[in-house]
Amino acid sequence: MSELEYFQPAVRQWFLKQFPAPTEPQARAWPAIKQRRHTLIAAPTGSGKTLAAFLSAIDELVAKSLAGELKDETLVVYVSPLKALSNDIQINLQEPLRGILQELDAASQNCAPIRTLVRTGDTPAKERTAMIKKPPHIVVTTPESLYILLTS
Q: How many angstroms separate the CA atoms of 27 and 124, rounded?
C-alpha cells in the first residue's frame, strides 16, 4: 500500500500537487502514525518531519468534518520551543489547510473550516477569551503557555 493511500482523497490530491513524492521520513512515519502507534521522527532539517505530523493530524480533522463529527474542541497541540517558531508553524499550517479545502470544494465536499491558533505569552486577551468560547482545532504553543493552559 502506498503511504499516501492512508489519507483522504483531497489531502492526497493536495500533497501530490505540491510534492513529487513523500520524503523518506514521511513515507516511513505515515503508516505508523495512521495506525496510531507512537512515532518519533529523527531526520535532518528540511526533511518534512513537521509536515509528516501535521498532514496526518489535518487528515484526521478533515475525516471528522466530512463525517459531521468535528466539534468545537482542540484536538491537536503542537509545542514549539520558541515564540518565533510558533508563528512560523502557524503560517506553514495555513497553506495545506487552504489547499485541502480547495480540493474539497472542487470535489463538492462540504468541510467545516479547521481553525488554528498560536497561543504564546504575546497572545492578546481578546484572542485568549475567544479561544475559550470557540476553541481552535489546532493550537500551536510554547512550553510556558502550555503550562498556563493546562493549569488555568
A: 39
* 109-138 pLDDT tens trace: 988 889 998 888 888 888 888 888 899 999
Alpha carbon distance 42, 47 (integer Å): 10
Nearest to 62 by CA among 76, 47, 77, 41: 76
Nearest to 142 by CA among 94, 92, 72, 88: 88
Which residues lie closer than 8 Å to 147 by C-beta, 6 or more apart? none
Q: Retrieve residue 6's grid coordinates.
A: 492512508
Task: For residue 68, give the DSSP letter.
Answer: T
Kindly state the average pLDDT of the residues 4-20: 94
Note whether 68 and 24 are within 8 A (CB).
Answer: no
- From residue 63, how far is each of 6, 89, 98, 139 by CA, in Å? 11, 22, 16, 19
pLDDT 10s digits, 24-52: 999 999 999 999 999 999 999 999 998 99
Distance between CA 87 and CA 23 in Å, rounded? Answer: 24
pTM of the model: 0.88
Any bridge partners for residue 140, and if so which?
78, 118
